[in-house]
Amino acid sequence: MSTGDKIPIRGRKIPIQMFAPPACVLATLLAVSLASGQVPPNATLLQLNASDALCLDGRPAFIYLATAPSPSDLWVLNFGASPELAFCVDLKSCLAIREYMAAQATPTSFLLAGWGVQSRNCVDNPDFCNANHVLFPMGAFEPGCDLGLMVSQDDVVVNETFSLRFRGPQIVAAALGALIRGGAGPMAGARSVLLTGVTFGGMAAVLAADLVQAELTRALPALERFKVLPVDALHPRYYSMVWMAWGNFFSDSWMTPALQFLANVTGGPSAQPASPALRACAAGGLPLWECLYLNATLPHVAAPLFLLQQLGSVWDYQCAYEGAAPTDSLLQVQCSKSSSQYRHYYTCVQYPDLCSGAIVANFSVPLQREYSAYANTSIRTGNGYFLHSCYLGVYSMSGRGNTSVWNIISINGVTMREAVSAWWAGGNASSPMLHHDGYWNPSGVPPAGADAAGSPMSHNGSASTEPGAAAGAPIVPPWTSRFFTNPTCRGFPWY
């Protein structure tokens, strides 16, 4: 079960809220993982004592550490735990998040997802099953700490009694310093390090990649390999569906003003970003907020990286392009505009098989091409990507049956996990490893091998009635969508 899925309750399909309370998230992850034989890594609190490493609300920063089952020189640094909105989009959201964080006690432990790169099952996850894991808390919900994508460093003075703190680079330095401790810490023997994160955690991993690499190489002269695995990190600058309801008036989504706000606290007192990639981007003449869009910064990231990207992600569809900025509520479904005026667009992101073919042709497919254009700015030796068109939510942290979803989704016979393994094993001089799925088919032809004839029903038992739906499009089985072109997208209960 993945974020963005829906579960049946009394015959209805109720969306799973991406930003469910942490206790519910942990309980669900634990129940699903244990039922499948997975044992999620349990990370313990490590308080940071550096005076300048602070959370948004001013308390000392902290991280979580889960050591490997047996001694290991492999480390995975996780930026954020789940795909929540991990940065302040405006002052109002910052103040609301600060108030929430200040009222929460810091948990003494945190259960990682236990799937994908975090799985301890060496059949499911042969490359990283015996890795040490470090969680850098990001976002509003506990454990929450940094709200500046790990690259912002400044204070926003609210009044004479408190300020909002942005200390991402200081937190990175303090955390790695505490873990290595001049050669005496648990990370002192690290030889291979993977930096990863999901959605805005992935975006932070890209922006801070070279900053983290510089800290590691300075403290670990014997480090042999550092690579970055951003998951659903791309958020293209693309117009919003909301404006389509107002006479095709195309406008930016809320991401542009949100990144403009964030840019004001990213440069720091010296107006120079701590991130080398951001500095290089800004030196080319772009305003800093525009460099926060990854297509502008990816060409400047020196660390080898591999993009795992959904074309387009569930979060982006609901909370960036179809909906509005979630400043009052951080619930994914509540981003959507579900009134009668926006009904067709809401249907598209909640039940894509019932979407109008016209919207798929004129919005979804052009958006998918934007994701591809962003990803292609990262192409160089030692890099790669896996761009798939399934609509599944947080697949990299999800499981189905007894395996992680990344062992099921494939492009031309290569699974997501196999693609990551080949990139991880390859040297930095290897050719780019590019796996690109097909785009959605607006005419509504289901993927080959989807067994439509064996189960000729859509999820609600009828053909699409949305205006603009392709005439005569086959009614598809309940485990796929008539717009998807990859057969491995089937079999996932995301309705």
Task: Please give a structural write-up.
The chain has 495 residues and is an alpha/beta fold. It has one domain (21-489). 27% of the residues lie in helices and 16% in strands. The protein has helices at residues 22-35, 91-102, 168-180, 200-207, 209-219, 241-244, 255-263, 276-283, 288-291, 294-297, 314-321, 343-350, 357-376, 416-425, and strands spanning 6-9, 12-15, 42-47, 62-66, 74-79, 109-111, 132-136, 153-157, 163-167, 192-198, 225-231, 306-310, 384-388, 399-400, 403-404, 410-411, 414-415, 433-436. Strands 6-3-4-7-5-10-11 form a 7-stranded mixed beta sheet. A 3-stranded parallel beta sheet has the order 12-13-18, sandwiched between helices. It has a two-stranded antiparallel sheet with strand order 1-2. A hairpin with a 2-residue loop joins strand 14 and strand 15 (403-404). Helix 3 runs parallel beside helix 5. The protein is globular. The N and C termini lie close together (11 Å). The relative contact order is 0.13. Residues 1-36 and 450-474 have low confidence and may be disordered.
Brief overview, please?
The protein is an alpha/beta fold and 495 residues long. Helix content is 27%, strand content 16%.
